[in-house]
Amino acid sequence: MVYMEGRVYIPNNRKIKEEILKKNHDLADMGYPGQYRMLELIKKTYWWLGLKKDIKKYIQECFKYQQNKVQHQRKAGELHPLEILEGPWQEISIDIIGPLPKSNGMDAIVVIVNRFTKMIRLKATTMNISSEGIAKIYRDKIWKLHGISRKILSNRGPQFTSKFMEELTKVLGTKRQLSMAYHSQTDSQTERINQEIGTFL
Q1: Quick check: 43 and 30 in contact, CB under 8 A?
Q2: Phi, psi of 64 (to 5 degrees)
Q3: Are residues 147 and 64 in the same domain?
Q4: Total-model pTM
Q5: pLDDT tens digits, 64-106
Q6: How many CB atoms are closer than 10 A to CB 93?
Q7: Residue 121 belongs to domain spanning
Q8: How far apart are CA 93 and CA 120, in angstroms?
Q9: Which residues lie below 8 Å from residue 109, measured CB to CB, with a gap of 6+?
Q10: Residue 31 has pLDDT above 50, yes or no
């Protein structure tokens, strides 16, 4: 085994590279990481010539596959009208952004979006936040101010899929919508979130 600055050097072997790319992209607890997060994950352990280029190509191909899959499913099934939102904070989406540079022991931000008005709530946290921690954020940042939400959209992170969260939302009468890679933001909304996070930091 050859090392390059403390990292395992990967020879020009397509099969090995694809296995490493797949392993660091299809993360059950994080959804699908972006290009820079994936580069950060791989560079901790491995190195090869053209790594950044290979990551970009892999993500582009994966994105095209996911788009084709969704379009195929839409064609195969019946068309359903979008659910009409009746008021603010009845339906929210949640995501965890990180890891970020540590500040006061925190290395992540919880982003909650009101899907009716697109208003955003941010809360500093850590990447290993528990379901109970998420519940406390719901309680203090959302429910206490706006009432209990009727629906919560999220990815399948362990904080959102746990038995605790399942039981909590069941008792409250809140519907959960889970997906492998939930992206609630349009380009303009993502830009606004990034601006607010920049101010927040």
Answers
A1: no
A2: -65, -40
A3: no
A4: 0.51
A5: 655 555 555 555 555 555 566 667 888 999 999 888 888 899 9
A6: 19
A7: 91-200
A8: 10
A9: 96, 97, 98, 100, 122, 123, 124, 125, 197, 200
A10: no
Count of the separate structural domains present in the chain: 2
Distances (CA, A) of 176 to 16, 21, 72, 91, 94: 38, 30, 24, 10, 11
Distances (CA, A) of 93 to 79, 122, 126, 153, 154: 23, 12, 19, 4, 6
- Residue written as tokens 């596959």? 65
- Rounded CA-CA distance 94/80 in Å is 24
85: in domain: no
- Identify whether residues 106 and 158 lie together within a single domain: yes
- Residue 33 is part of a domain; what is its CATH number? 1.10.340
CA distance 182 to 59: 16
Token digits of residue 133: 């921690």
Select from 46, 76, 106 the last residue of a domain.
Answer: 76
Residue 158 and residue 65 share a domain: no
Residue 190 is assigned to a structural domain of this protein: yes
Residue type, 102: K
Domain boundary among 53, 76, 99: 76
> Residue holding tokens 């195969």?
76
In this structure, the dihedral spanned by the alpha carbons of residues 55, 58, 61 and 67, taken in order and rounded to 10 degrees, is -80
Residue 36 DSSP code: H
